[in-house]
């Protein structure tokens, strides 16, 4: 039997490393998308709670009317807040 050449072993190792890195980054990107989705859902819930709160306050004080606060939908990558 012929011995596998050293270059064949390196090719296999390089392929394994490449696929491992690709899989890791695929999982990492999926986790980032999951966190972004969860964050967007939390923001929507907070906005609904805030709207309900402002309706309650405005119903108690009808003479006081301000412009409604609005938030533009942004991509999570646009946020410059520190992590955590």
UniProtKB/TrEMBL annotation:
GO terms for cellular component: collagen trimer. The chain crosses the membrane at residues 12-34. Keywords: Collagen, Membrane, Transmembrane, Transmembrane helix. This is Putative collagen alpha-1. It comes from Operophtera brumata (Winter moth).
């Amino acid at each position: 039997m012929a011995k596998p050449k050293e270059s064949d072993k390196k090719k296999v190792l390089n392929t394994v490393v490449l696929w491992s890195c690709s899989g890791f980054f695929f999982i990492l990107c999926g986790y980032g998308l999951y966190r972004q989705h969860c964050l967007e859902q939390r923001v929507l819930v907070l906005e609904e709670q805030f709207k309900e709160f402002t309706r309650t306050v405005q119903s108690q004080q009808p003479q006081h009317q301000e412009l409604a606060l609005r938030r533009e939908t942004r991509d999570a990558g646009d946020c410059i807040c520190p992590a955590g």
